[in-house]
TrEMBL record:
Residues 51-420 form the Amidohydrolase-related domain. GO terms for molecular function: hydrolase activity, acting on carbon-nitrogen (but not peptide) bonds. PANTHER family: AMIDOHYDROLASE-RELATED DOMAIN-CONTAINING PROTEIN (PTHR43794:SF11), AMINOHYDROLASE SSNA-RELATED (PTHR43794). This is Amidohydrolase. Belongs to the metallo-dependent hydrolases superfamily. ATZ/TRZ family. It comes from Rhodovarius crocodyli. It comes from the Bacteria.
Length: 477
């Protein structure tokens, strides 16, 4: 890759340095070679009055390129929503993931963590298609091998037989059909799949992790075995945690000492590991996370849309928990815009601009085990050019203007490893309308041939909500 000099009006190189005027970034072989210097005889990419910022990493999402409303499961209480999603049947993975990647690139997201997810088919085959989609997009991705062995229908697992017995006879076969997770159920199988994918995609922008679905969905033995497998491979664990009132209640019953203390005893915490959501973390949970360096990925828009309440951002920050930004394919505005989610985090936690940028760049990249998070010599040239904030008051620091006003629509250019993957509304590798049509057709195929009768799916969802109401798991705050 030839040398390139990238110019712009401003450079916000990372969370530890304020924006600086007259940005000049020399790139060599896809890596930042120098800042602030001219280079003769080198091609120039001049972004004019733009602001250069590090590419964002979305540290929790599932590759759903279409809105969940388009896919047939609108916002609802999490457990009813998940029931509707699972029983509707899964669309083909490749077109949805490729569209998700394209939309992330268009919003200035250069890397992502693809959390455990099932499109309804065999995990190994789906993960192959997921990996192929991210590779075709050009973005960086850490892809989790999903693992679970309990609690697929209701929480905790021990309540399953009683729940099914209490259903109308006509619904019992449907409930029985989903009492097992679609994910891999053993650490040995997860390790085999992980290692095969890692070998297949070695030397690319992809890497692989283990994705235990969450402590209430994964037995102690399996969690401990996955933690050991991750350590042996110098990779991480990423899991859902205390997202809903039902999960909170189940974890109180399963882990009387506290869920994070149990995970600590199982060897499942540490700087390479992370959890998503954490809406119902206790002060002791936060202290354990902070003490082990385990990160929490915030998804505030999703938490509000799925009736779970906001994450305790202020308390997390005070506790010293490492915070990263996700999106969960369920941003408040349903648009893949990370700046809007950052503003929601700022509103909930009153975090300063530097810490907001850190959550979306350095910490998010670290959570995914991806390089970058700053624009600095020796790091990959994962760089985004943003239009300057409209009507910027010169007395207002630029970082405040950006975190307060910038949107994904302001992205002019997204570069990964020195390769321009988005520029002024176009994707050099793909045609966005074509990707959208392919994803929509995948969703239509499921609607034309639903896996289960819609009326039965809705009836089972109502029964789930009645069950959790009877156990005292009230709607989120």
């Amino acid at each position: 890759m030839a040398d390139l000099l990238l110019r712009a009006a401003w450079l916000w190189a990372g969370a530890d340095t304020p924006p600086q005027p007259d940005a000049r970034v020399l790139l060599r072989d896809g890596v930042v070679a120098a800042l602030g210097m001219e280079a003769t005889g080198v091609p120039v990419l001049d972004m004019g009055d733009a602001v250069l910022v590090p590419g964002f990493t979305c540290a929790h999402q599932h590759g759903r390129g279409l809105s969940q409303l388009q896919l047939g499961y609108p916002d609802d209480r999490l457990e009813a929503w998940a029931n509707r999603r699972r029983l509707r049947g899964g669309p083909a993975a490749h077109p949805l993931v490729l569209l998700a990647a394209a939309r992330m690139l268009a919003n200035g997201i250069t890397g992502c963590l693809h959390a455990n997810w099932s499109y309804g088919g065999p995990q190994e085959e789906e993960l192959a298609e997921v990996s192929r989609a991210y590779a075709e997009s050009g973005m960086r991705a850490a892809i989790c091998v999903g693992v679970a062995d309990r609690g697929a229908l209701v929480l905790p697992e021990e309540a399953t037989d009683g729940f099914i017995a209490g259903l109308p006879p006509a619904l019992r076969p449907l409930a029985q059909s989903v009492r097992r997770h679609p994910f891999i159920a053993t650490a040995a199988e997860a390790a085999r799949v992980h290692d095969g994918l890692s070998a297949r995609w070695a030397g690319t922008r992809l890497r692989f992790m283990f994705g235990p679905a969450g402590p209430h969905w994964v037995s102690d033995r399996l969690f401990a075995e996955l933690a050991a497998a991750a350590r042996d491979r110098a990779t991480g664990l990423h899991f859902h945690l205390l997202e809903s009132p039902a999960q909170q209640q189940a974890c109180r019953a399963i882990y009387p000492e506290g869920v994070m203390r149990r995970l600590l005893a199982l060897g499942a915490l540490g700087p390479r590991n992370s959890a998503a959501h954490g809406v119902y973390l206790t002060p002791d949970d936060m202290a354990v996370m902070a003490g082990t360096g385990t990160a929490l990925v915030l998804n505030p828009g999703s938490n509000l849309r799925l009736h779970n309440g906001p994450p305790p951002v202020s308390a997390l920050a005070r506790s010293g928990v490492r915070l990263a930004l996700g999106g969960d394919d369920c941003e408040l505005n349903d648009d893949r815009d990370p700046w809007g989610e950052l503003r929601l985090v700022a509103t909930l936690g009153h975090l300063p601009p530097a810490e907001l940028l850190r959550a979306a760049t350095e910490t998010a990249a670290a959570v995914a085990g991806l390089p970058g998070g700053r624009i600095a010599p020796g790091l990959p040239a994962d760089i985004v050019a943003l239009a300057p904030p409209a009507a910027h008051d010169p007395d207002l620091p630029l970082e405040h203007a950006l975190t307060g006003r910038a949107t994904g629509r302001d992205v002019r250019m997204t570069m990964v490893g020195g390769e321009v993957l988005y520029r002024d509304g176009r994707l050099p590798r793909h045609d966005l309308p074509t990707l959208e049509q392919a994803a929509l057709e995948a969703a239509r195929a499921v609607r034309r041939h639903p896996a289960r009768a819609p009326a039965d799916v809705e009836a089972l969802g109502r029964a789930l909500l009645d069950f959790y109401a009877s156990t005292g798991a009230a709607p989120g705050r």
